């Protein structure tokens, strides 16, 4: 069936602020859907309250509504303009729940709006646990024994009937909120109460726990002709018992028998056809008994999901893009295959490589959190490694995590305590993968590890092979490693750092020199969705060690943009937004734009965003070889957060041009001593400070600068390890802990300006002129990390003198640091005196927010200035803001109920939303201002 021509305008519902369980994968799917519909001549409107995303940017949709995600906001939009249809499947659970609520309130019918991409009845069937269970029974699909409970009494009766261990799954929640395992009777009452409270309908499913069974996911697409295709099979490395968002996953499935896979496919197709008459994407989760291949269905989501973003990147098949075309009436065989451009979208991708996703956790931000993994998701981001084998992809994913690992072990970070290792194998946490390797290195038998972890033997055998290779490598020195063996090590994903560590007394550079002299270099393979069966037009690559290189280097002038790696607290989606704008600016000004990043959730790793995408770790060895192959004019490090900035020194040492602000000037801003000397020279006030390398020195410094003091390590992001202390005893504890967590670091001790106001400025400098992008005043006092503060644009209570000083200091610092591009400065204001706390010569968390509030494409302007194509005077900048915009931080405390909620200098928020107010009489603002000191902790 061709396109439904009655649909001329579509509203896409976004997913709101980033929270654990619903992150930037929906920014990716929403952006893809909007661009896909615009290709069809459809007018696209988006409602989303998240200012940090590319989805809420003018380059994506015709109309962007940065409004609270409520049915009332949706109705306001429907009154303002004619909307023919709403697409709710791109915005996670938030969008589905809103769509359902609007349906119940009769909003869609009243305004003549058609719901596309999902059947509202299907949402009910899949989200209501009892309705889903009954449907599975009706169509002959196996499910775990379970009962629904709407009260304490019903829950206890269900538990008695099913027996322990049990799972409690609340209805209508996201990321496993409120769910958990109950192993014994004594734990049941507390778990049941929590589940009933977490469900908006106070309903839970009490279910038999199939702990230790294998877990799989299938990503499906279906059109209105009832054609269904399976895009990707995904196998969880971790068995049942850990939320899929917290599981290491592998695509395609590795340990599934062909008979079992065919059976699973057929069941998934039956399930998708049974949940309603709609066209779009769907995610199905299964569990398989490893003893007899018995399959049971866990759940089905009638929308794109976290896994569909992963599956899109894994296969090169853009699920959200195709799903939105299906939603407006097309059939699969009528849509062009986006990769080959010569075949149709009615095909199932074939992978001739392996994908490994590893989640990224941030437990260090949640002191006292229960770090054991279970049914409730706790990770804040993820990375994806692509390799020719499972083990190569696994090691690349470990290098991508940015937790200081050079791969899976062999880097000096191993655990030698057999008690801790065995406990960690049984009680899964963020480091279980590394502990498995440590256990094998210490001689723990593979079968013992399998029994305690219940991880499939095939995966464990693969990891054991690494241990054997390491033992063999130790027999050689760098100069006598046989070429074939060296090649094998690289094929198995070993980094030069790991090889250097295992050989001892050798540097990474020496290993690199030796292997390149042997002719062992990376080659790049294309992700083409069809295992090279058809010619692919998409420049999307991963590296491996083989003979043939598929990445053809053009003779155009090139720019490489370094991405920000996995999302984490302190470095989130706002840097992806900046990278996308960097790519667009480079393309607009005639450069070939090349992206390097390893985050599967992001728009910057979409196959059609850059001229060329290298899906690789933002890790020196990988970046270095891409630069050597492509020979770019330069590399942009300003847009990828601290991840990209940390690579500046290596680039500088190797004579690679950094686009924009030079390395030495960035280093002045990062190095507290050099920066304070600069401020002194410029006659700009700053809090007294000192630097210490141990606790004794710290006490001397603190007494000189005067308590209270702010203690922090140098060169970190998101306030990592920061604390405010008021006496010698607390200081000693803080410094010992810091140096234990970050050995070799220096500790900065600043006098803390108690009860000061905190403000910040963002600006662009072209080497001659400085333009202030925006000044923001924080509602909360100094002492709460800027990322956790509610901030108001423009300032609401600062005197003219303070504003003039902030602007003057911003301009002075920008020029003194020779900034070319972006600069963010944090200030503290006390008794009308402005002190500079820090300066960051890079894109900040606040620039996307200011760009949306003022409706000015600031990153695009900054990127063109960095590239040397334009000066500030070339742009006519007109701000459009009536009233004020407030940046509201959003926290994911519901995932860590045991963690205290007070705020301090270390950032804890996972996302943010924007709220516009006309004036300061607004009741929302007045409440925020009244509560401003409530959560401040020391």
TrEMBL record:
GO terms for molecular function: ATP binding; carbamoyl-phosphate synthase (ammonia) activity; carbamoyl-phosphate synthase (glutamine-hydrolyzing) activity; metal ion binding. One of its GO terms (cellular component) is cytoplasm. The keyword Plastid does not apply. Pathway: Amino-acid biosynthesis; L-arginine biosynthesis; carbamoyl phosphate from bicarbonate: step 1/1; Pyrimidine metabolism; UMP biosynthesis via de novo pathway; (S)-dihydroorotate from bicarbonate: step 1/3. Residues 133-328, 676-867 form the ATP-grasp domain. It holds the Pfam family CPSase_L_D3. Its cofactor is Mn(2+). Composed of two chains; the small (or glutamine) chain promotes the hydrolysis of glutamine to ammonia, which is used by the large (or ammonia) chain to synthesize carbamoyl phosphate. Tetramer of heterodimers (alpha,beta)4. Large subunit of the glutamine-dependent carbamoyl phosphate synthetase (CPSase). CPSase catalyzes the formation of carbamoyl phosphate from the ammonia moiety of glutamine, carbonate, and phosphate donated by ATP, constituting the first step of 2 biosynthetic pathways, one leading to arginine and/or urea and the other to pyrimidine nucleotides. This is Carbamoyl-phosphate synthase large subunit. It comes from Pedobacter nutrimenti.
């Amino acid at each position: 069936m061709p396109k439904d021509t009655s649909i001329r305008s579509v509203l896409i519902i976004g997913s709101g602020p980033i929270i654990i369980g619903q992150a930037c994968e929906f920014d990716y799917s929403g952006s893809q859907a909007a661009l896909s519909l615009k290709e069809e001549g459809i007018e696209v409107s988006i409602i989303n309250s998240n200012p940090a995303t590319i989805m809420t940017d003018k380059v994506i949709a015709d109309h962007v509504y940065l409004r609270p995600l409520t049915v009332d906001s949706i109705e306001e939009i429907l009154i303002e303009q004619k909307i023919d249809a709403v697409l709710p499947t791109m915005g996670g659970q938030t969008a589905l729940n809103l769509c359902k609520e609007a349906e119940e309130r009769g909003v869609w019918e009243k305004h003549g709006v058609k719901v596309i991409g999902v059947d509202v009845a299907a949402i009910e069937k899949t989200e209501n646990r009892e309705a889903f269970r009954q449907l599975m029974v009706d169509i002959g699909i196996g499910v775990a024994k379970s009962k629904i409970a709407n009260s304490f009494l019903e829950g206890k009766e269900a538990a008695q009937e099913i027996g322990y261990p049990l799972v409690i799954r609340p209805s209508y929640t996201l990321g496993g909120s409120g769910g958990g395992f109950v192993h014994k009777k004594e734990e049941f009452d507390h778990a049941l109460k929590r589940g009933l409270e977490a469900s908006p309908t106070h309903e839970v499913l009490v279910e038999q726990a199939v702990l230790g069974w294998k877990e799989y996911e299938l990503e499906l697409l279906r059109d209105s002709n009832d054609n269904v295709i399976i895009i990707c099979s995904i196998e969880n490395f971790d068995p049942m018992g850990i939320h899929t968002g917290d599981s290491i996953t592998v695509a395609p499935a590795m340990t599934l028998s062909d008979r079992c896979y065919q059976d699973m496919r057929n069941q998934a197709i039956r399930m998708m056809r049974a949940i309603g008459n709609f066209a779009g994407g769907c995610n199905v989760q299964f569990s398989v008994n490893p003893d007899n291949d018995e399959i049971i269905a866990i759940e089905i989501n009638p929308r794109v999901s976290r896994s569909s973003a992963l599956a899109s990147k894994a296969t090169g098949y853009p699920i959200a893009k195709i799903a939105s075309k299906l939603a407006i009436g097309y059939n699969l065989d009528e849509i062009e295959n986006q990769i080959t451009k010569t075949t149709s979208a009615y095909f199932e991708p074939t992978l001739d490589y392996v994908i490994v996703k590893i989640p990224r956790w941030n437990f260090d931000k949640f002191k006292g959190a229960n770090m054991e993994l279970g049914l409730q998701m706790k990770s804040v981001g993820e990375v994806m490694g692509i390799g020719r084998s499972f083990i190569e992809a696994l090691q690349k994913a470990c290098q991508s995590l940015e937790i200081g690992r050079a791969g899976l072990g062999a880097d000096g970070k191993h655990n030698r305590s057999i008690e801790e290792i065995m406990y960690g194998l049984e009680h899964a946490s963020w480091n279980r993968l590394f502990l498995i390797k440590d256990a094998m290195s210490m001689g723990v038998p593979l079968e013992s590890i399998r029994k305690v972890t219940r991880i499939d033997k095939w995966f464990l055998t693969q990891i054991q092979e690494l241990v054997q290779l390491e033992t063999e490598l130790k027999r050689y020195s760098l100069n006598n490693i046989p070429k074939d063996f060296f090649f094998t090590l690289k094929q198995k994903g070993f980094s030069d750092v790991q090889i250097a560590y295992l050989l001892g007394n050798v540097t990474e550079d020496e290993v690199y020199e030796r292997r390149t002299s042997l002719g062992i270099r990376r080659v790049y393979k294309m992700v083409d969705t069809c295992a090279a069966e058809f010619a692919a037009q998409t420049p999307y690559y991963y590296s491996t060690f083989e003979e043939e290189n598929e990445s053809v280097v053009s003779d155009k002038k090139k720019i490489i943009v370094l991405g920000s790696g996995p999302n984490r607290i302190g470095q989130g989606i706002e840097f992806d937004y900046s990278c996308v704008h960097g790519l667009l600016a480079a393309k607009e000004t005639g450069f070939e734009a090349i992206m390097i990043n390893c985050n599967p959730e992001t728009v910057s790793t979409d196959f059609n965003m850059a001229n060329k995408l290298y899906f690789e770790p933002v890790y020196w060895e990988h970046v270095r070889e891409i630069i050597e192959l492509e020979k770019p004019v330069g590399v942009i490090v300003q847009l990828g957060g601290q991840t990209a900035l940390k690579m500046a020194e290596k680039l500088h040492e190797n004579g690679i041009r950094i686009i924009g602000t030079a390395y030495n000037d960035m280093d002045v801003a990062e190095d507290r001593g050099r920066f304070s000397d600069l401020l002194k020279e410029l006659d700009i006030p700053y809090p007294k400070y000192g630097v210490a390398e141990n606790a004794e020195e710290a006490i001397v410094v603190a007494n000189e600068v005067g308590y209270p003091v702010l203690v922090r390590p140098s060169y970190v992001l998101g306030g990592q390890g920061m604390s405010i202390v008021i006496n010698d005893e607390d200081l000693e504890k803080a410094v010992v802990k810091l140096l234990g967590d970050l050995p070799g670091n220096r500790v900065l001790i600043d006098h803390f300006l108690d009860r000061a106001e905190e403000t910040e400025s963002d600006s662009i400098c072209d080497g001659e002129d400085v333009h202030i992008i925006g000044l923001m005043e924080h509602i909360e006092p100094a002492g709460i990390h800027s990322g956790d503060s509610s901030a108001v644009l423009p300032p609401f209570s600062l005197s003219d003198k303070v504003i003039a000083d902030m602007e003057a200091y911003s301009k002075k610092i920008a020029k003194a640091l020779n900034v070319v591009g972006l600069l963010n400065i944090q200030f503290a204001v006390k008794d009308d005196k402005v002190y500079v706390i820090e300066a960051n010569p890079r894109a900040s968390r606040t620039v996307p927010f200011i760009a949306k509030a003022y409706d000015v494409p600031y990153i695009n302007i900054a990127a063109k200035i960095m590239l040397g194509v334009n000066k500030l005077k070339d742009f006519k900048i007109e701000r459009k803001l009536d009233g004020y915009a407030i940046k509201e931080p959003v926290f994911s405390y519901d995932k860590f109920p045991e963690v205290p909620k007070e705020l301090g200098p270390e950032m804890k928020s996972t996302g943010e939303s924007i709220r516009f107010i006309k004036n300061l009489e607004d009741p929302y603002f007045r409440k925020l201002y009244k509560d401003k000191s409530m959560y401040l902790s020391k």
